[in-house]
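Quick log. Single chain, no ligands specified.
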Amino acid sequence: MNQELTAQVRRITEKVLKERAQTAAQNRKVLAIFGTTQNGLDIPLQQLQQCQQDGWKIQIILSELATKTLSLSPIRAAFGEENIWQENELRDIDDIVDTYPLIVLPALAYPMAAKLALRLVDTPCTYLVFEALRQEKRVIAASDAFGTRAQFTSRKSFGQLLETEYVNLLSELGVQWVTAARLAEAINEANTATRITVETAVISASVIANLAPDIQELGYITPAIVTPLAREHAQKRGIKLIPKRKSD
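-> predicted structure:
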């Protein structure tokens, strides 16, 4: 191989590595939405701080109820006022959804869980989460507030039955449940998914079938059509379908 060809290969390799690094940096963004909770915030905050130390950009949103019920001092101390938004201040929610590939609910409790499970999208925070799920983006929720009491009794109360129903419905929508102590681990695992983007008017079953075995996320340019059979094949293979705008 002559020097000119070697230099050309090196330039191409450097360009590819640079593009991959830029893509990885863009993807290392987390939108953490805090609702009200009776559980302590120490573990969720520690987990998010660990992600911050690992190079993730953490943006906090406080629901309206959270601003009235939570002690906000630890959150402000951990992430700074400039990285905290309040729900009533949110603008351009669709743009926020486009910006953040990963949504985390580190303090999810019954009020927000119930609204999401029942599709009652009547607040900026619930709309944001529901829209992210609709676009098949990753949504990770702390499960600590759910499914604990039911383990100790054979007869479930009405509240426990609702609790189980919420978890099941949100799981069907695409929510990934982890304990608060595993939030950092789940966030870092979410960034390792292999993703490609295709530009075609129709995403058919054959497109899915021809993807490499290691592909976990398929981005497509809206308003491309995804056929029902393609969605079925993607679900069987565990491939997330992610719509993207032409300018992304």
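Confidence is low (pLDDT under 50) at residues 19-24, 148-154.
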